[in-house]
Amino acid sequence: MATPQSTLPIRARRWAISGAALGVVVAVAGWAPAAWLASTLAAATNQRLLLADTRGSIWNGSARVILSPGAGSNDASELPQRLGWALRPAWIDGGLGVRLTLDQTCCVRPASPLTARLGMNRLTLRLPDTSPEQPWIRWPAGWLVGLGTPWNTVAPDGTIAISAQGFIFDGEGKTLRVQGIAQLELRDFSSRLAQLAPLGSYRLNLVGGAVPQLVLMTQQGPLQLSGQGSLGARPQFRGEATPAPGSEAALANLLNIIGRREGARSIISVG
Where are the domains of the chain? Predict the structure, then answer.
């Protein structure tokens, strides 16, 4: 029969092994290369969003950011500069999460981190507070060509701007909750399918509430876009594109691609 004294070395060895294992885990996590993040992101997006030529670690790194139509495709497009990031563990709303700060001189507002809290089958994401006048992100619309059809046909030009005010996305299982507002703008949009340039500037708002709402509106331009939708149990969107008087012929090819034609209008329907 083991005595209390004889069990002490066994317990000590177990604690030593546990401590060593924890140390290895911490060391691996601390020095995990950025390439691990690239592999995870590629798998999660079915090879559509790629981090190439990665440098540094998952905590402090940079990469070339590429959009691709998917595995096996030779078509791709790249952001104009390398994208850097700093990822830090953080205690968020009483739970463990991460704080991500992006660094890209041309296109990302500095010192504007987003935060994410992870849980069992749950993700809470908070975007940094910015304004349409000083957005969080400004990326060239031409980057979307890398996704393939229909973007490579439309060949968009202009600027994609993203901003948010008090925006919190909370997803748990199939339940979705949204607070605040997020704005995606397409500014000075043009396309090789149209004989006019620019075609206009547009804003898509995601507005929080019991059922999050999508609202598409035209800010200016001969191509008029409008629509509404929701992100409830069954996401849906209905909208239309119409040419301003006198621009019907110049916009005909583009309207044929945007949606289903009904006379001069093009109907957009999702869900």
Answer: 32-122, 127-270
